[in-house]
Amino acid sequence: MPEQLPTPQTAARPDAGAHAEPLPGPADAAAPSPRSVTMSVAVLVTLLLLTVMVFLRVPYAVSSPGPTRDTLGEVDGAPLIEVEDGTPTYPSTGELRLTTVSVVGGPGYPATLPQVVSGWLSGSRTVRPVEAVFAPDITQDQLDEQNQAAMTSSQESATVAALEELDFDVPAELVVAGAVEGTGAMGVVEEDDVVVSFQGEPVDSYTALIDALAQTPPGTDVALGVLRDGERLDLDVVTGERPDGGSQLGVFIDPQFTLPVDVTIRIEDIGGPSAGLMFALGIVDLLTPEDEVAGEVVAGTGTMDVDGTVGPIGGIAQKLAGAERDGADWFLAPAANCPDVVGHVPDGLRVVRVATLAEGRDAIEAIGAGQADTLPTCTAAS
Questions:
Q1: Are residues 162 and 282 in the same domain?
Q2: If 32 and its partner were Cys, which of 20, 36, 129, 169 is the partner (CB 3.0–4.6 Å)?
Q3: Nearest Cα to 274, choosing from 328, 222, 201, 323?
Q4: Phi-psi region of 202 (alpha: psi -120 to 50; beta: other; left: phi over 0)
């Protein structure tokens, strides 16, 4: 008789009304302590505050080294400076770099707290209250328009100064835009008068008028010949004192130049008047057979008047840093900016002080010839 196998046993199922013990499971999570809750809330609040701080706009402007551009180079495959009327031009093996400042914190470009803090910690940036940099209530469109107008005027002045430096005649119609309050011209000279003579001598260029005034003592009663509505008039004007010597008429002149050479300057996304010196030097280099900079990299800045005067600019410390960053060994600085230059010159960059276009031209020729050791620089006594 076969052996009977044991019957498999199954777990007993409790009756519907019976009490059943729960099966063992994961241990219940412990309730968070008050300290843990406090820490979690603090972390969340901190993250929220940090997020707000990143995007928080603050009333400061941060100036940083901006891009530099070689005025002897190209922009999008075309020369930055081009002569378009067949006038002979000459190549150069060096670079003449204009320098710029990038600013956040102005109209349309508000500064954030991290940008301001970073500026405070940086050796090449400057942080100032926004009202110290930008006029109150100015809009982004107005600022862009002003900067573009200043750039256009700078290019024209640089072209005139460069051509006259090269002994081109640059005739101009000297149109009066108005008289300066409190001067001898007030009530005598009228808007839209055209100046044609000074002390009986014909005046056919802006530089000729400036040169004549430079030789005239302040307080002189001069005869100013003008055309008014087509009629020739001789006006008596008592000159005022010019800060750098000689006289001034006390009139605003809007010269309408007739350029003997057709010069085009291509520059985008850069505004203001401070590239005038480097534009003028680029034109001089382009129109002369000499290779003035001869492989050297020279950066610089400065406004340019049509009479060749180099004027001061803002942001010199940032421009020095940008020049060194982009490989310049030399920097041409306006003489009036020397107090701001001292203490901000990066290692390896040599600064040359210039007050006129002629001095700037002499400087780049000396640098290219390897004879720059005696060029003037900025010192604490400058």
A1: yes
A2: 36
A3: 323
A4: beta
Structure tokens at 293: 């900079």
Residue 48 has a pLDDT of 58
Residue 382 domain-assigned (yes or no): no
Q: Which residues contact 181 (CB under 8 A, 6 or more apart)?
A: none
Task: Evaluate whether 216 touches 180 at the Cβ level (below 8 Å).
Answer: no
CA distance 167 to 148: 29
Name the residue range of residue 133's domain: 60-167+260-368
So what's the pLDDT on residue 324? 98
299, containing H or E segment: strand 297-300
Residue 196 or residue 36, greater confidence: 196
Q: Are strands 231-238 and 221-228 parallel, antiparallel or unpaired?
A: antiparallel
pLDDT, position 291: 95
For residues 266 and 279, give the distance between their C-alpha atoms in angstroms, rounded to a whole number: 11
230, burial (CB in 10 Å: exposed 0-12, middle 13-18, buried 19+): exposed
pLDDT value of position 24: 52
Q: Are 313 and 274 in contact (CB under 8 A)?
A: yes
d(CA 210, CA 116): 45
State the Cα angle at 182 between 176 and 186, rounded to 5°.
Answer: 35
Let me know whether 231 and 268 are in one domain: no
Among 234, 257, 280, where does a domain finish?
A: 257
